[in-house]
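Project standup — Tuesday

K.O.: blocked on the structure for the chain from last sprint. Re-posting the sequence here as requested.
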Amino acid sequence: MKKLLQLILRFFAQAVLKKYKPQIIGITGSVGKTSAKEAITFALAKNFRVRANIKNYNNEIGLPLTILGRPSPKKNLFIWLKLFLFAIRLLLWKHKKYPQVLVLEMGVDRPGDIKHLTDIARPNIAILTTIATSHLEFFGSIDKIAQEKRSIFNSLAKQDWVVLNHDDERVMMDADKLNAQKITFGFSPSADIYIHEVKIVKHFTYGTCFTLTYQNKDYSFILNNVLGKQHAQAVAIGFAVAIILKLEPAEIIPALETYKSARGRTNLLPGIKKSWVIDDSYNASPKSSQVAVEILSAMETVGRRLAVFGDMLELGASSEEAHRDLGKQIASSNIDYLFLIGERARDIKRGAQAAGMSEDKIFSFAHTIEAGYFLQDRIKEADIILVKGSRGAKMEQVVYEIMAKPWEAGDLLVGPIV
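H.V.: unblocked you, prediction finished:
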Protein backbone atom coordinates (compact mmCIF):
# COMPACT_ATOMS: atom_id res chain seq x y z
CA MET A 1 0.00 0.00 0.00
CA LYS A 2 2.80 2.43 0.92
CA LYS A 3 4.53 1.87 -2.42
CA LEU A 4 1.27 2.44 -4.32
CA LEU A 5 0.61 5.71 -2.46
CA GLN A 6 4.15 6.90 -3.25
CA LEU A 7 3.68 6.13 -6.95
CA ILE A 8 0.40 8.05 -7.09
CA LEU A 9 1.96 10.94 -5.18
CA ARG A 10 4.91 11.00 -7.58
CA PHE A 11 2.58 11.01 -10.59
CA PHE A 12 0.59 13.98 -9.31
CA ALA A 13 3.73 15.94 -8.39
CA GLN A 14 5.21 15.45 -11.86
CA ALA A 15 1.90 16.39 -13.51
CA VAL A 16 1.60 19.58 -11.44
CA LEU A 17 5.16 20.61 -12.34
CA LYS A 18 4.45 19.99 -16.01
CA LYS A 19 1.37 22.21 -15.86
CA TYR A 20 2.69 25.13 -13.78
CA LYS A 21 6.36 25.09 -14.88
CA PRO A 22 7.90 26.79 -11.82
CA GLN A 23 11.60 27.49 -11.51
CA ILE A 24 13.00 24.54 -9.54
CA ILE A 25 15.98 25.13 -7.28
CA GLY A 26 17.47 21.85 -6.04
CA ILE A 27 19.83 21.90 -3.06
CA THR A 28 21.97 19.04 -1.84
CA GLY A 29 25.11 18.69 0.27
CA SER A 30 26.29 17.09 3.48
CA VAL A 31 25.70 20.23 5.54
CA GLY A 32 24.16 23.63 4.94
CA LYS A 33 21.12 22.64 2.86
CA THR A 34 18.51 24.11 5.17
CA SER A 35 20.42 27.35 5.74
CA ALA A 36 20.83 27.74 1.98
CA LYS A 37 17.12 27.08 1.48
CA GLU A 38 16.23 29.72 4.06
CA ALA A 39 18.58 32.30 2.53
CA ILE A 40 17.23 31.71 -0.97
CA THR A 41 13.68 32.09 0.30
CA PHE A 42 14.53 35.38 2.03
CA ALA A 43 16.31 36.65 -1.10
CA LEU A 44 13.41 35.92 -3.47
CA ALA A 45 10.25 36.30 -1.39
CA LYS A 46 9.55 39.96 -2.23
CA ASN A 47 9.77 39.42 -5.98
CA PHE A 48 8.41 35.91 -6.52
CA ARG A 49 5.84 33.52 -5.11
CA VAL A 50 8.19 31.08 -3.37
CA ARG A 51 7.62 27.74 -1.68
CA ALA A 52 10.28 25.73 0.14
CA ASN A 53 10.30 22.40 1.96
CA ILE A 54 8.96 22.53 5.48
CA LYS A 55 10.34 20.40 8.32
CA ASN A 56 12.32 17.50 6.80
CA TYR A 57 10.24 17.16 3.63
CA ASN A 58 13.28 16.37 1.48
CA ASN A 59 12.77 12.72 0.52
CA GLU A 60 10.65 10.67 -1.89
CA ILE A 61 7.48 11.53 0.06
CA GLY A 62 8.32 15.00 1.38
CA LEU A 63 9.44 16.39 -1.98
CA PRO A 64 6.14 15.64 -3.81
CA LEU A 65 4.19 16.92 -0.80
CA THR A 66 6.10 20.20 -1.05
CA ILE A 67 5.31 20.41 -4.76
CA LEU A 68 1.62 19.93 -3.97
CA GLY A 69 1.77 22.22 -0.95
CA ARG A 70 0.20 19.76 1.47
CA PRO A 71 1.24 18.28 4.84
CA SER A 72 1.93 14.58 5.25
CA PRO A 73 -1.20 12.39 5.64
CA LYS A 74 0.97 9.85 7.48
CA LYS A 75 -1.12 6.66 7.86
CA ASN A 76 -4.56 8.23 7.48
CA LEU A 77 -6.07 6.88 4.23
CA PHE A 78 -8.90 9.43 4.33
CA ILE A 79 -6.37 12.30 4.34
CA TRP A 80 -4.46 10.61 1.52
CA LEU A 81 -7.70 10.61 -0.49
CA LYS A 82 -8.23 14.32 0.25
CA LEU A 83 -4.64 14.97 -0.85
CA PHE A 84 -5.18 13.27 -4.21
CA LEU A 85 -8.46 15.15 -4.74
CA PHE A 86 -6.59 18.40 -4.06
CA ALA A 87 -3.97 17.40 -6.65
CA ILE A 88 -6.71 16.71 -9.20
CA ARG A 89 -8.14 20.19 -8.60
CA LEU A 90 -4.68 21.69 -9.18
CA LEU A 91 -4.59 19.94 -12.53
CA LEU A 92 -8.16 20.68 -13.64
CA TRP A 93 -8.21 24.36 -12.65
CA LYS A 94 -5.44 26.94 -12.82
CA HIS A 95 -4.34 27.93 -9.32
CA LYS A 96 -3.29 31.58 -9.67
CA LYS A 97 -1.20 31.54 -6.50
CA TYR A 98 0.84 28.44 -7.31
CA PRO A 99 4.54 29.22 -6.63
CA GLN A 100 6.72 30.67 -9.35
CA VAL A 101 9.78 29.23 -7.59
CA LEU A 102 10.17 25.96 -5.67
CA VAL A 103 13.19 25.74 -3.36
CA LEU A 104 13.72 22.03 -2.74
CA GLU A 105 16.18 20.40 -0.38
CA MET A 106 17.15 17.01 -1.78
CA GLY A 107 18.23 14.76 1.04
CA VAL A 108 20.54 11.78 0.59
CA ASP A 109 20.57 8.77 2.88
CA ARG A 110 21.49 6.01 0.43
CA PRO A 111 22.87 5.58 -3.11
CA GLY A 112 20.33 6.46 -5.80
CA ASP A 113 18.37 8.97 -3.73
CA ILE A 114 19.33 11.98 -5.85
CA LYS A 115 18.29 10.34 -9.13
CA HIS A 116 14.94 9.41 -7.62
CA LEU A 117 14.34 13.00 -6.50
CA THR A 118 15.55 14.69 -9.69
CA ASP A 119 13.33 12.33 -11.70
CA ILE A 120 10.42 13.85 -9.78
CA ALA A 121 11.64 17.46 -9.99
CA ARG A 122 14.45 18.30 -12.42
CA PRO A 123 16.25 21.43 -11.17
CA ASN A 124 16.80 24.53 -13.28
CA ILE A 125 19.30 25.67 -10.65
CA ALA A 126 21.29 23.00 -8.80
CA ILE A 127 23.25 23.85 -5.65
CA LEU A 128 25.92 21.73 -3.96
CA THR A 129 26.86 23.14 -0.56
CA THR A 130 29.63 20.84 0.64
CA ILE A 131 30.62 17.18 0.79
CA ALA A 132 31.50 15.59 4.12
CA THR A 133 31.17 12.32 6.01
CA SER A 134 27.47 12.38 6.94
CA HIS A 135 25.60 9.08 6.26
CA LEU A 136 28.95 7.34 5.78
CA GLU A 137 27.40 4.19 7.24
CA PHE A 138 25.33 3.73 4.06
CA PHE A 139 28.01 4.69 1.50
CA GLY A 140 31.27 3.27 2.81
CA SER A 141 33.49 6.12 1.60
CA ILE A 142 33.37 9.88 1.16
CA ASP A 143 34.11 9.42 -2.56
CA LYS A 144 30.85 7.51 -2.97
CA ILE A 145 29.03 10.24 -1.06
CA ALA A 146 30.56 12.80 -3.44
CA GLN A 147 29.50 10.77 -6.46
CA GLU A 148 25.91 10.65 -5.19
CA LYS A 149 25.76 14.36 -4.36
CA ARG A 150 27.25 15.43 -7.69
CA SER A 151 24.68 13.35 -9.56
CA ILE A 152 22.28 16.29 -9.04
CA PHE A 153 24.04 17.83 -12.07
CA ASN A 154 23.32 14.91 -14.40
CA SER A 155 19.93 16.15 -15.61
CA LEU A 156 20.94 19.77 -16.27
CA ALA A 157 20.73 21.44 -19.67
CA LYS A 158 22.98 24.19 -21.07
CA GLN A 159 20.57 26.96 -20.08
CA ASP A 160 20.47 25.72 -16.47
CA TRP A 161 22.73 26.87 -13.64
CA VAL A 162 24.88 25.31 -10.94
CA VAL A 163 25.95 27.08 -7.74
CA LEU A 164 29.12 25.53 -6.33
CA ASN A 165 31.18 25.79 -3.16
CA HIS A 166 34.53 26.95 -4.52
CA ASP A 167 36.33 25.91 -1.31
CA ASP A 168 35.35 22.22 -1.51
CA GLU A 169 37.59 20.17 -3.82
CA ARG A 170 35.06 17.38 -4.12
CA VAL A 171 32.31 19.81 -5.06
CA MET A 172 34.52 21.43 -7.71
CA MET A 173 35.76 18.15 -9.19
CA ASP A 174 35.12 18.16 -12.97
CA ALA A 175 33.20 21.43 -12.63
CA ASP A 176 34.56 22.59 -15.99
CA LYS A 177 32.86 19.62 -17.65
CA LEU A 178 29.37 20.41 -16.38
CA ASN A 179 26.70 20.96 -19.00
CA ALA A 180 25.36 24.14 -17.39
CA GLN A 181 26.27 27.72 -16.50
CA LYS A 182 28.23 28.12 -13.26
CA ILE A 183 28.57 30.54 -10.39
CA THR A 184 30.80 29.82 -7.39
CA PHE A 185 30.95 31.11 -3.83
CA GLY A 186 33.61 30.79 -1.19
CA PHE A 187 36.30 32.27 1.02
CA SER A 188 38.82 32.38 -1.82
CA PRO A 189 39.24 35.59 -3.87
CA SER A 190 38.96 33.46 -7.01
CA ALA A 191 35.33 32.55 -6.22
CA ASP A 192 32.72 34.43 -8.25
CA ILE A 193 31.13 35.51 -4.97
CA TYR A 194 33.99 36.07 -2.52
CA ILE A 195 33.11 35.94 1.19
CA HIS A 196 35.52 37.80 3.45
CA GLU A 197 35.92 39.85 6.63
CA VAL A 198 33.65 37.45 8.53
CA LYS A 199 33.38 38.31 12.23
CA ILE A 200 31.12 37.42 15.12
CA VAL A 201 30.33 40.71 16.82
CA LYS A 202 28.39 41.80 19.88
CA HIS A 203 26.45 45.01 20.36
CA PHE A 204 23.09 44.53 22.08
CA THR A 205 23.17 40.92 20.91
CA TYR A 206 25.54 38.65 19.03
CA GLY A 207 25.60 38.57 15.25
CA THR A 208 27.77 38.00 12.20
CA CYS A 209 29.09 40.65 9.84
CA PHE A 210 30.83 39.98 6.53
CA THR A 211 31.39 41.27 3.01
CA LEU A 212 30.52 39.70 -0.34
CA THR A 213 32.51 40.78 -3.38
CA TYR A 214 30.85 40.17 -6.75
CA GLN A 215 32.05 41.57 -10.07
CA ASN A 216 34.52 43.88 -8.27
CA LYS A 217 31.86 45.43 -6.04
CA ASP A 218 31.66 44.97 -2.26
CA TYR A 219 28.39 44.36 -0.41
CA SER A 220 28.39 44.45 3.40
CA PHE A 221 26.01 42.46 5.61
CA ILE A 222 25.14 42.40 9.31
CA LEU A 223 23.04 39.45 10.50
CA ASN A 224 21.75 39.85 14.06
CA ASN A 225 21.27 36.71 16.18
CA VAL A 226 22.98 34.67 13.46
CA LEU A 227 26.32 33.03 14.23
CA GLY A 228 29.14 31.81 12.06
CA LYS A 229 30.67 31.74 8.63
CA GLN A 230 28.33 28.96 7.48
CA HIS A 231 25.52 31.52 7.45
CA ALA A 232 27.68 33.85 5.36
CA GLN A 233 27.94 30.95 2.91
CA ALA A 234 24.15 30.54 2.96
CA VAL A 235 23.67 34.24 2.24
CA ALA A 236 26.17 33.99 -0.61
CA ILE A 237 24.08 31.15 -2.08
CA GLY A 238 20.93 33.25 -1.74
CA PHE A 239 22.74 36.15 -3.42
CA ALA A 240 23.86 33.87 -6.28
CA VAL A 241 20.36 32.53 -6.93
CA ALA A 242 18.86 36.03 -6.87
CA ILE A 243 21.48 37.21 -9.39
CA ILE A 244 20.69 34.23 -11.64
CA LEU A 245 17.01 35.20 -11.50
CA LYS A 246 17.91 38.75 -12.62
CA LEU A 247 17.42 40.63 -9.35
CA GLU A 248 19.62 43.65 -8.59
CA PRO A 249 21.96 43.81 -5.56
CA ALA A 250 20.09 46.89 -4.29
CA GLU A 251 16.99 44.75 -3.70
CA ILE A 252 18.81 41.54 -2.76
CA ILE A 253 20.81 42.95 0.17
CA PRO A 254 17.93 44.32 2.30
CA ALA A 255 16.04 41.06 1.79
CA LEU A 256 19.01 38.93 2.84
CA GLU A 257 19.72 41.04 5.93
CA THR A 258 16.38 39.77 7.31
CA TYR A 259 17.74 36.21 7.10
CA LYS A 260 17.38 34.16 10.28
CA SER A 261 18.83 30.76 11.03
CA ALA A 262 16.36 27.88 11.09
CA ARG A 263 15.40 26.02 14.25
CA GLY A 264 18.27 24.09 15.75
CA ARG A 265 20.91 25.50 13.38
CA THR A 266 23.23 27.63 15.55
CA ASN A 267 20.12 29.49 16.67
CA LEU A 268 20.96 32.00 19.42
CA LEU A 269 18.52 31.93 22.35
CA PRO A 270 18.49 33.70 25.73
CA GLY A 271 19.36 31.25 28.48
CA ILE A 272 18.62 31.06 32.18
CA LYS A 273 20.53 33.38 34.54
CA LYS A 274 21.26 35.85 31.70
CA SER A 275 23.28 33.30 29.75
CA TRP A 276 23.19 32.57 26.01
CA VAL A 277 22.35 29.24 24.37
CA ILE A 278 23.54 28.28 20.90
CA ASP A 279 20.88 25.79 19.84
CA ASP A 280 22.55 23.61 17.20
CA SER A 281 20.49 20.56 18.11
CA TYR A 282 18.98 19.72 14.72
CA ASN A 283 21.79 17.42 13.61
CA ALA A 284 25.52 16.78 13.83
CA SER A 285 28.24 15.61 11.49
CA PRO A 286 32.00 15.87 12.06
CA LYS A 287 32.15 18.94 9.79
CA SER A 288 29.21 20.81 11.33
CA SER A 289 30.45 19.98 14.83
CA GLN A 290 33.87 21.40 13.99
CA VAL A 291 32.24 24.62 12.79
CA ALA A 292 30.08 24.85 15.93
CA VAL A 293 33.14 24.54 18.19
CA GLU A 294 34.89 27.27 16.19
CA ILE A 295 31.88 29.56 16.68
CA LEU A 296 31.72 28.99 20.43
CA SER A 297 35.45 29.48 20.80
CA ALA A 298 35.36 32.78 18.87
CA MET A 299 32.57 34.42 20.86
CA GLU A 300 33.59 37.13 23.31
CA THR A 301 32.18 36.87 26.83
CA VAL A 302 33.08 37.64 30.43
CA GLY A 303 31.46 34.31 31.29
CA ARG A 304 32.44 30.76 30.44
CA ARG A 305 32.08 28.69 27.27
CA LEU A 306 30.29 25.38 27.77
CA ALA A 307 29.98 22.72 25.06
CA VAL A 308 27.22 20.10 25.31
CA PHE A 309 27.45 17.27 22.77
CA GLY A 310 25.37 14.19 22.06
CA ASP A 311 26.22 11.32 19.74
CA MET A 312 27.05 11.83 16.08
CA LEU A 313 25.18 9.02 14.32
CA GLU A 314 25.41 7.19 10.97
CA LEU A 315 29.20 7.42 10.75
CA GLY A 316 29.83 3.69 10.36
CA ALA A 317 33.38 2.48 10.91
CA SER A 318 34.69 6.04 11.26
CA SER A 319 32.50 6.81 14.29
CA GLU A 320 35.11 6.32 17.02
CA GLU A 321 37.77 8.33 15.19
CA ALA A 322 35.35 11.16 14.37
CA HIS A 323 34.24 11.50 17.99
CA ARG A 324 37.83 11.40 19.25
CA ASP A 325 38.89 14.05 16.75
CA LEU A 326 36.06 16.29 17.94
CA GLY A 327 37.26 15.85 21.51
CA LYS A 328 40.79 16.84 20.52
CA GLN A 329 39.48 19.98 18.82
CA ILE A 330 37.44 20.93 21.89
CA ALA A 331 40.46 20.47 24.16
CA SER A 332 42.55 22.79 22.00
CA SER A 333 39.79 25.42 21.73
CA ASN A 334 38.77 28.22 24.03
CA ILE A 335 36.16 26.08 25.84
CA ASP A 336 35.92 25.80 29.62
CA TYR A 337 33.67 22.79 30.23
CA LEU A 338 32.46 19.81 28.23
CA PHE A 339 29.19 17.94 28.81
CA LEU A 340 28.56 14.67 26.96
CA ILE A 341 25.43 12.58 26.47
CA GLY A 342 25.27 9.08 25.01
CA GLU A 343 27.41 6.02 24.35
CA ARG A 344 29.32 7.29 21.32
CA ALA A 345 29.99 10.65 22.97
CA ARG A 346 32.30 8.86 25.40
CA ASP A 347 34.85 8.85 22.59
CA ILE A 348 34.69 12.66 22.58
CA LYS A 349 35.81 12.50 26.22
CA ARG A 350 38.66 10.15 25.36
CA GLY A 351 39.84 12.45 22.59
CA ALA A 352 39.61 15.55 24.79
CA GLN A 353 41.55 13.91 27.62
CA ALA A 354 44.22 12.66 25.22
CA ALA A 355 44.64 16.26 24.04
CA GLY A 356 45.10 17.57 27.58
CA MET A 357 41.63 18.53 28.86
CA SER A 358 41.43 17.72 32.56
CA GLU A 359 38.84 15.19 33.72
CA ASP A 360 37.28 17.60 36.21
CA LYS A 361 36.10 19.75 33.27
CA ILE A 362 34.28 16.88 31.53
CA PHE A 363 30.89 15.50 32.60
CA SER A 364 29.09 12.50 31.09
CA PHE A 365 25.40 11.58 31.17
CA ALA A 366 23.16 8.82 29.89
CA HIS A 367 20.12 11.02 29.21
CA THR A 368 19.42 14.55 27.99
CA ILE A 369 17.07 15.44 30.85
CA GLU A 370 19.71 14.45 33.39
CA ALA A 371 22.25 16.69 31.66
CA GLY A 372 19.75 19.56 31.46
CA TYR A 373 19.03 19.45 35.19
CA PHE A 374 22.75 19.31 35.95
CA LEU A 375 23.40 22.37 33.78
CA GLN A 376 20.60 24.36 35.43
CA ASP A 377 22.55 24.36 38.69
CA ARG A 378 25.90 25.27 37.17
CA ILE A 379 25.18 27.91 34.56
CA LYS A 380 26.22 31.43 35.53
CA GLU A 381 25.52 34.88 34.13
CA ALA A 382 27.15 35.59 30.74
CA ASP A 383 27.95 31.91 30.09
CA ILE A 384 27.56 30.73 26.49
CA ILE A 385 26.33 27.16 26.09
CA LEU A 386 26.58 25.28 22.78
CA VAL A 387 24.17 22.33 22.44
CA LYS A 388 24.68 19.94 19.52
CA GLY A 389 24.06 16.32 18.51
CA SER A 390 22.54 14.15 15.82
CA ARG A 391 18.78 14.19 15.30
CA GLY A 392 18.43 10.87 17.07
CA ALA A 393 20.10 12.29 20.18
CA LYS A 394 17.20 14.76 20.67
CA MET A 395 19.43 17.43 22.16
CA GLU A 396 16.60 19.99 22.05
CA GLN A 397 15.58 18.53 25.42
CA VAL A 398 18.76 20.03 26.91
CA VAL A 399 18.01 23.37 25.27
CA TYR A 400 14.52 23.32 26.76
CA GLU A 401 15.89 22.85 30.27
CA ILE A 402 18.25 25.84 30.06
CA MET A 403 16.42 28.35 27.79
CA ALA A 404 15.11 31.50 29.48
CA LYS A 405 11.61 31.17 27.99
CA PRO A 406 10.69 27.47 27.87
CA TRP A 407 7.08 28.36 27.12
CA GLU A 408 8.29 29.42 23.65
CA ALA A 409 9.81 25.99 22.95
CA GLY A 410 7.07 25.05 20.50
CA ASP A 411 7.99 27.99 18.28
CA LEU A 412 11.77 27.78 18.66
CA LEU A 413 12.94 24.18 19.08
CA VAL A 414 13.18 21.42 16.49
CA GLY A 415 11.24 18.67 18.21
CA PRO A 416 8.57 17.92 20.80
CA ILE A 417 9.69 18.10 24.42
CA VAL A 418 9.15 15.19 26.80
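K.O.: great, moving the ticket to review. The radius of gyration is 22 Å. The chain has two domains: 2-256, 267-412.
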